[in-house]
Amino acid sequence: MPYPQVVLLGDSLFEFAASSLSGFSFQAALQSRLIRRFDVVNRGFSGWNTDNVVKYLPELFFEPSPSAPKLAYLIILLGANDAVLPMETTSQHVPLDRYKENLNKIVNDARIRAHNPKILLVTPPPADEIKLKDLDIAQGHASAIRSSAVTASYAEKAREVARENPGVVLIDLWQAIMGEAISMAPGDYQPGGPWLGSFENGKQGGLDTLLPDGLHMGGAGYRVFFDELKAHIGQDIVPEERGDYVLPDWRVLNPPKVNLVPKPLSLE
Hints:
Layout: E1 5-10, H1 12-15, H2 26-34, E2 39-44, H3 50-60, E3 71-77, H4 96-107, H5 110-113, E4 118-122, H6 129-138, H7 148-164, E5 168-171, H8 173-184, H9 207-210, H10 219-229, H11 250-253
Parallel strand pairs: 1-2, 1-3, 3-4, 4-5
Helix pairs in contact: 3-4, 4-7, 8-10
Protein backbone atom coordinates (compact mmCIF):
# COMPACT_ATOMS: atom_id res chain seq x y z
CA MET A 1 0.00 0.00 0.00
CA PRO A 2 1.69 3.25 -1.09
CA TYR A 3 1.99 5.98 1.51
CA PRO A 4 0.62 9.41 0.51
CA GLN A 5 3.48 11.76 -0.25
CA VAL A 6 4.68 15.14 0.87
CA VAL A 7 6.93 16.41 -1.93
CA LEU A 8 9.52 19.13 -1.34
CA LEU A 9 9.99 20.76 -4.75
CA GLY A 10 12.72 23.30 -5.15
CA ASP A 11 16.41 24.08 -5.43
CA SER A 12 19.36 23.66 -3.05
CA LEU A 13 17.33 25.14 -0.21
CA PHE A 14 15.36 21.89 -0.26
CA GLU A 15 18.20 19.60 -1.35
CA PHE A 16 20.20 20.71 1.68
CA ALA A 17 17.13 20.33 3.91
CA ALA A 18 18.01 16.63 4.09
CA SER A 19 21.29 17.43 5.87
CA SER A 20 21.83 17.88 9.59
CA LEU A 21 23.03 21.44 10.15
CA SER A 22 24.00 22.51 13.66
CA GLY A 23 22.10 19.52 14.99
CA PHE A 24 18.88 20.14 13.05
CA SER A 25 17.56 18.52 9.88
CA PHE A 26 14.46 20.10 8.36
CA GLN A 27 13.52 17.00 6.40
CA ALA A 28 14.06 14.66 9.34
CA ALA A 29 11.96 16.89 11.58
CA LEU A 30 9.16 16.95 9.04
CA GLN A 31 9.29 13.19 8.47
CA SER A 32 9.26 12.60 12.23
CA ARG A 33 6.14 14.77 12.50
CA LEU A 34 4.41 12.75 9.76
CA ILE A 35 5.91 9.31 10.39
CA ARG A 36 3.78 6.30 9.37
CA ARG A 37 1.18 8.59 7.83
CA PHE A 38 3.07 10.24 4.95
CA ASP A 39 6.37 9.84 3.11
CA VAL A 40 8.45 13.00 2.73
CA VAL A 41 10.05 13.00 -0.73
CA ASN A 42 12.86 15.44 -1.46
CA ARG A 43 12.85 16.84 -4.98
CA GLY A 44 15.29 19.67 -4.32
CA PHE A 45 17.72 20.28 -7.18
CA SER A 46 20.71 22.48 -6.45
CA GLY A 47 21.09 25.30 -8.94
CA TRP A 48 17.68 24.86 -10.60
CA ASN A 49 15.37 27.71 -11.44
CA THR A 50 11.67 27.69 -12.33
CA ASP A 51 12.44 27.28 -16.06
CA ASN A 52 14.18 24.01 -15.23
CA VAL A 53 11.34 22.76 -13.03
CA VAL A 54 8.66 23.56 -15.63
CA LYS A 55 10.65 21.68 -18.29
CA TYR A 56 10.84 18.54 -16.14
CA LEU A 57 7.33 18.60 -14.64
CA PRO A 58 6.22 15.62 -16.81
CA GLU A 59 9.06 13.55 -15.30
CA LEU A 60 8.43 14.70 -11.75
CA PHE A 61 4.67 14.18 -11.41
CA PHE A 62 2.30 11.58 -12.81
CA GLU A 63 -1.43 11.11 -13.08
CA PRO A 64 -3.04 9.39 -10.06
CA SER A 65 -3.27 5.61 -10.29
CA PRO A 66 -4.20 2.82 -7.84
CA SER A 67 -0.61 1.60 -7.65
CA ALA A 68 1.09 4.98 -7.34
CA PRO A 69 1.35 7.16 -4.23
CA LYS A 70 -1.08 10.03 -3.86
CA LEU A 71 0.44 13.48 -3.78
CA ALA A 72 -1.06 14.80 -0.54
CA TYR A 73 1.08 17.92 -0.03
CA LEU A 74 3.28 19.84 -2.43
CA ILE A 75 5.68 22.35 -0.87
CA ILE A 76 7.33 24.63 -3.44
CA LEU A 77 10.41 26.71 -2.70
CA LEU A 78 11.89 28.33 -5.81
CA GLY A 79 13.24 31.73 -6.71
CA ALA A 80 16.68 32.06 -5.18
CA ASN A 81 18.29 31.09 -8.50
CA ASP A 82 15.74 32.88 -10.68
CA ALA A 83 16.82 36.03 -8.84
CA VAL A 84 20.48 35.65 -9.81
CA LEU A 85 21.49 38.89 -11.55
CA PRO A 86 22.01 38.65 -15.32
CA MET A 87 25.77 39.08 -15.69
CA GLU A 88 28.46 37.87 -18.08
CA THR A 89 29.38 35.18 -15.56
CA THR A 90 25.87 33.98 -14.60
CA SER A 91 23.32 31.77 -16.37
CA GLN A 92 20.45 31.09 -13.93
CA HIS A 93 18.48 34.35 -14.13
CA VAL A 94 14.77 34.13 -14.94
CA PRO A 95 13.01 37.47 -15.49
CA LEU A 96 10.55 38.42 -12.77
CA ASP A 97 7.42 38.14 -14.92
CA ARG A 98 8.44 34.73 -16.28
CA TYR A 99 9.20 33.57 -12.75
CA LYS A 100 5.61 34.37 -11.80
CA GLU A 101 4.34 32.71 -14.96
CA ASN A 102 6.36 29.58 -14.17
CA LEU A 103 5.03 29.41 -10.60
CA ASN A 104 1.52 29.63 -12.00
CA LYS A 105 2.28 26.77 -14.40
CA ILE A 106 3.55 24.62 -11.53
CA VAL A 107 0.66 25.19 -9.12
CA ASN A 108 -1.87 24.65 -11.92
CA ASP A 109 -0.21 21.68 -13.62
CA ALA A 110 -2.91 19.16 -14.57
CA ARG A 111 -0.94 16.18 -13.24
CA ILE A 112 -0.46 17.89 -9.90
CA ARG A 113 -4.02 19.15 -9.61
CA ALA A 114 -5.39 15.68 -10.42
CA HIS A 115 -4.12 14.56 -6.99
CA ASN A 116 -5.91 17.46 -5.29
CA PRO A 117 -2.96 18.13 -2.99
CA LYS A 118 -2.61 20.89 -0.46
CA ILE A 119 -0.13 23.26 -2.14
CA LEU A 120 2.16 25.33 0.06
CA LEU A 121 4.07 28.03 -1.84
CA VAL A 122 7.15 29.31 -0.04
CA THR A 123 8.78 32.65 -0.79
CA PRO A 124 12.56 32.59 -1.28
CA PRO A 125 14.36 33.81 1.84
CA PRO A 126 16.32 37.07 1.95
CA ALA A 127 19.77 37.36 0.38
CA ASP A 128 22.62 38.72 2.46
CA GLU A 129 24.50 40.54 -0.29
CA ILE A 130 27.08 41.81 2.19
CA LYS A 131 28.32 38.28 2.79
CA LEU A 132 27.66 37.10 -0.77
CA LYS A 133 29.88 39.77 -2.30
CA ASP A 134 33.16 38.31 -1.03
CA LEU A 135 32.08 34.72 -1.71
CA ASP A 136 30.91 35.49 -5.25
CA ILE A 137 34.04 37.49 -6.11
CA ALA A 138 36.15 34.58 -4.86
CA GLN A 139 34.33 32.38 -7.40
CA GLY A 140 35.23 34.67 -10.28
CA HIS A 141 32.29 37.04 -10.45
CA ALA A 142 32.83 40.79 -10.63
CA SER A 143 30.46 41.43 -7.70
CA ALA A 144 27.67 39.80 -5.72
CA ILE A 145 25.40 37.88 -8.11
CA ARG A 146 22.34 38.30 -5.89
CA SER A 147 20.80 41.51 -4.60
CA SER A 148 18.81 41.94 -1.41
CA ALA A 149 16.24 44.12 -3.17
CA VAL A 150 15.93 41.89 -6.23
CA THR A 151 15.43 38.76 -4.13
CA ALA A 152 12.76 40.63 -2.15
CA SER A 153 10.94 41.39 -5.43
CA TYR A 154 10.87 37.68 -6.29
CA ALA A 155 9.43 36.93 -2.86
CA GLU A 156 6.68 39.46 -3.59
CA LYS A 157 5.86 37.69 -6.88
CA ALA A 158 5.48 34.41 -4.98
CA ARG A 159 3.05 36.18 -2.63
CA GLU A 160 1.05 37.36 -5.65
CA VAL A 161 0.82 33.81 -7.03
CA ALA A 162 -0.49 32.54 -3.70
CA ARG A 163 -3.07 35.34 -3.51
CA GLU A 164 -4.25 34.79 -7.08
CA ASN A 165 -4.64 31.00 -6.90
CA PRO A 166 -7.41 29.85 -4.56
CA GLY A 167 -6.32 27.03 -2.30
CA VAL A 168 -2.60 27.81 -2.55
CA VAL A 169 -1.22 28.54 0.93
CA LEU A 170 1.58 31.07 1.34
CA ILE A 171 4.54 30.34 3.59
CA ASP A 172 6.33 33.69 3.84
CA LEU A 173 9.86 32.49 4.51
CA TRP A 174 11.34 35.85 3.49
CA GLN A 175 9.37 37.62 6.21
CA ALA A 176 10.01 34.89 8.79
CA ILE A 177 13.79 34.90 8.27
CA MET A 178 14.05 38.68 8.13
CA GLY A 179 11.84 39.06 11.19
CA GLU A 180 13.95 36.61 13.16
CA ALA A 181 17.16 38.29 11.99
CA ILE A 182 15.89 41.67 13.18
CA SER A 183 14.83 40.25 16.55
CA MET A 184 18.32 38.78 17.02
CA ALA A 185 19.95 42.20 16.56
CA PRO A 186 17.28 44.90 16.88
CA GLY A 187 19.81 47.72 16.89
CA ASP A 188 20.91 46.85 13.34
CA TYR A 189 17.59 47.72 11.73
CA GLN A 190 15.48 50.86 11.86
CA PRO A 191 11.77 50.44 10.95
CA GLY A 192 11.21 51.64 7.42
CA GLY A 193 14.93 51.67 6.72
CA PRO A 194 17.06 49.48 4.46
CA TRP A 195 16.78 45.75 5.14
CA LEU A 196 19.47 43.75 6.89
CA GLY A 197 21.99 42.28 4.50
CA SER A 198 21.75 45.15 2.02
CA PHE A 199 24.66 47.44 1.26
CA GLU A 200 22.38 50.38 2.08
CA ASN A 201 21.99 49.09 5.64
CA GLY A 202 25.54 47.82 5.95
CA LYS A 203 24.68 45.37 8.73
CA GLN A 204 23.69 41.72 8.66
CA GLY A 205 22.10 41.30 12.08
CA GLY A 206 20.87 37.76 12.60
CA LEU A 207 21.22 36.93 8.90
CA ASP A 208 24.85 36.14 9.67
CA THR A 209 23.62 33.15 11.71
CA LEU A 210 20.44 32.23 9.81
CA LEU A 211 22.10 32.35 6.35
CA PRO A 212 25.72 31.32 7.01
CA ASP A 213 26.84 31.83 3.41
CA GLY A 214 24.40 34.63 2.67
CA LEU A 215 22.10 32.37 0.64
CA HIS A 216 21.56 28.96 2.22
CA MET A 217 19.93 28.45 5.59
CA GLY A 218 21.85 26.95 8.46
CA GLY A 219 20.25 24.89 11.20
CA ALA A 220 18.79 27.98 12.89
CA GLY A 221 17.29 29.17 9.60
CA TYR A 222 15.73 25.80 8.88
CA ARG A 223 14.22 25.82 12.38
CA VAL A 224 12.52 29.12 11.56
CA PHE A 225 11.22 27.58 8.33
CA PHE A 226 9.97 24.46 10.11
CA ASP A 227 8.18 26.55 12.73
CA GLU A 228 6.37 28.44 9.93
CA LEU A 229 5.38 25.19 8.23
CA LYS A 230 4.04 23.39 11.30
CA ALA A 231 0.80 25.35 11.31
CA HIS A 232 -0.08 23.98 7.87
CA ILE A 233 0.98 20.34 7.85
CA GLY A 234 0.54 17.63 10.46
CA GLN A 235 -1.13 20.01 12.88
CA ASP A 236 -4.06 17.61 13.37
CA ILE A 237 -1.92 14.56 14.09
CA VAL A 238 -2.13 13.15 17.60
CA PRO A 239 0.95 10.91 17.93
CA GLU A 240 -0.64 8.67 20.56
CA GLU A 241 -3.62 7.95 18.29
CA ARG A 242 -2.42 5.37 15.79
CA GLY A 243 -5.63 4.57 13.94
CA ASP A 244 -4.57 6.73 11.00
CA TYR A 245 -1.35 4.78 10.33
CA VAL A 246 -1.19 3.59 6.73
CA LEU A 247 -0.15 0.15 7.99
CA PRO A 248 -1.50 -1.02 11.35
CA ASP A 249 0.10 -0.54 14.73
CA TRP A 250 1.78 -3.58 16.23
CA ARG A 251 -0.87 -3.77 18.94
CA VAL A 252 -3.43 -4.51 16.24
CA LEU A 253 -1.25 -7.15 14.59
CA ASN A 254 0.03 -8.67 17.84
CA PRO A 255 -2.44 -7.86 20.63
CA PRO A 256 -0.55 -7.60 23.93
CA LYS A 257 -1.42 -10.16 26.59
CA VAL A 258 -1.34 -7.48 29.28
CA ASN A 259 -3.47 -4.37 28.90
CA LEU A 260 -0.71 -1.79 29.18
CA VAL A 261 -1.14 1.97 28.80
CA PRO A 262 1.36 3.08 26.13
CA LYS A 263 3.48 6.12 26.84
CA PRO A 264 4.86 8.41 24.16
CA LEU A 265 8.44 7.55 23.22
CA SER A 266 10.86 10.35 24.02
CA LEU A 267 14.00 10.62 21.92
CA GLU A 268 15.44 13.54 23.82
